[in-house]
């Protein structure tokens, strides 16, 4: 299908007005399709931070970076020939995290990238958080390098051969990397520039960089067939093209994306529902929520993806979010926990999926310092960086309003400083502690069905820990 390129409204000023098998595709996708196309030209909006554009918009879809989605999965009639070709090429084995990045590239989340970065792209990303389009086409945001590391033996095997076959963790051929370029992998520089520290204990560094090879290999990627994980959740891994088609089928005139890697509590739901209300007040007729949990690598103490997806299904089943105006889909990217640097990537990828509004909260993509008792990043810097980041001008940034548990109303509500004593802040750590100990949070913190999913998960962990190890033979 040909790409539909539609314009976006001018960027808005940063504003803040007063079990996996049961996860049903019908909860987020099966619904009456809306065929009307809405005109937004006369819609009032807050004063733009940047120069306004004169536009007429027919739906939520905005141009992907570079003007077209880069989709690099081979057509079915080419796959047999590619497999035969791969048999004659040197091979590089990818880790699971590498495979997740190949998935990101294959579907166009990182458009206009056509493969793992060559050195010039890597240096631009690492030092400028952007890459230049060819022929003076401007800049696009690219705050995280998407690279593939190889070892000395791989480099020697490749030699001066132009093309390389990439294997998945199971040894099957996933893709061919063409016109390759091999260059040094300075891990310390990469880590320092992305995270702002080289302190030990950074989860992504420990998982994907520390033991990686001393070389990076870039080139144009040709993926043999759509990447699947066969975990019962593949039908939720909608590509940017599929999401754009779905937004268009629903007649969305605005799409607001919510990035998360945690269970949804009623404070999150309050924020998402309030965002829809605000968009309706601005004159939009059919804003659609993209609830977009991160599906790649996460750190060990995060709730696993299948559990999160089941919890999200309960949020829809219990009516906390409206299935008719919500699309739940898995974002395949791994997680860096790199704060203001990473949040730019999260926003940029959603542009390529067609979202024109992005919700950003306190300390997005952040974490505690790995060796000190403090936040690794200033909690407010993520939203400030997004409001200024080169290459993200066409995206409207919607900052969180702070939500907490109102002990008087006995529900999650937006924090009121005039009666701060009435509010209880329940951190993710405290929430996990409640669930691990079998304690119930205050009524109104999370829908009962969603809470039960978490309690069952932590009970299963405790049951596994209680099983004695087999005696040595």
From TrEMBL:
Pathway: Sulfur metabolism; hydrogen sulfide biosynthesis; sulfite from sulfate: step 1/3
Keyword Plastid: yes
Top-level enzyme category: transferase
Keywords: ATP-binding, Chloroplast, Nucleotide-binding, Nucleotidyltransferase, Plastid, Transferase, Transit peptide
Residues annotated as domain Sulphate adenylyltransferase catalytic: 235-456
The EC number(s) this enzyme carries: 2.7.7.4
A Pfam family matched in the record: PUA_2
InterPro entries xrefs: ATP-Sase_PUA-like_dom, PUA-like_sf, Rossmann-like_a/b/a_fold, Sulfurylase_cat_dom, Sulphate_adenylyltransferase
A GO molecular-function descriptor: sulfate adenylyltransferase (ATP) activity
Occurrences of domain ATP-sulfurylase PUA-like (ranges): 62-225
Gene3D superfamilies, per the entry: HUPs, Sulfate adenylyltransferase
PANTHER family recorded: ATP SULFURYLASE 2 (PTHR11055:SF37), BIFUNCTIONAL 3'-PHOSPHOADENOSINE 5'-PHOSPHOSULFATE SYNTHASE (PTHR11055)
NCBIfam families membership: sopT (TIGR00339)
Protein name in UniProt: sulfate adenylyltransferase
Organism: Eragrostis curvula (weeping love grass)
